[in-house]
């Protein structure tokens, strides 16, 4: 109602954040009190490059739920210096959102992922279909998500081609 509340720790983020490096990088709300947010957390900090995983958290009727690892990203994020994170999110309605970001593959390339939430439950993240074929130099990510209605979303981002030029994809 136009007044800022007190900042609070994202519920459940401290339990995930063993590497002591976490943040929310994007948030979207379908109505007041019904939002989803995405970001990252570090699972370890044994060297100068922490292992980073993607997280999401959902607010329902004004109450934030528990932060969780984006389902499926740990299986995708297997490269050296694994670095996954959510860069963009959009919600068509409460509990129906799509998010995207990046991860480091087992081949040590940065790939783009997308994941959708339906009825308040996050599905399993997948590599953006077709993006690996475009991503010749191994650097791609999702930076924008837009949803017109539940299940009808578009994502956009970039990849590097053979000439090291960043190209846009949708």
Please give the structural blueprint.
Blueprint (H helix, E strand, L loop, with lengths): L12 H4 L5 E10 L2 E11 L6 E10 L2 E2 L3 E2 L3 H4 L8 E9 L2 E9 L5 E9 L2 E2 L3 E2 L3 H4 L5 E10 L2 E9 L5 E4 L1
Antiparallel strand pairs: 1-2, 2-3, 3-4, 3-5, 6-7, 7-8, 8-9, 8-10, 11-12, 12-13
Indicate the proportion of strand residues.
over 45%
Give the oligomeric state of the chains in this entry, treating copies of one chain as homo and distinct chains as hetero: single chain
- Low-confidence runs (pLDDT<50, min 5 residues)? none
Distance between the termini: 36 Å
Helix content: under 10%
Please tally the β strands and state the result: 13
Mean of all residue-level pLDDT scores: 90
| Cα-based radius of gyration, to the nearest Å | 16 Å
Total DSSP helices? 3
The main pleated sheet reads as:
5 strands, antiparallel
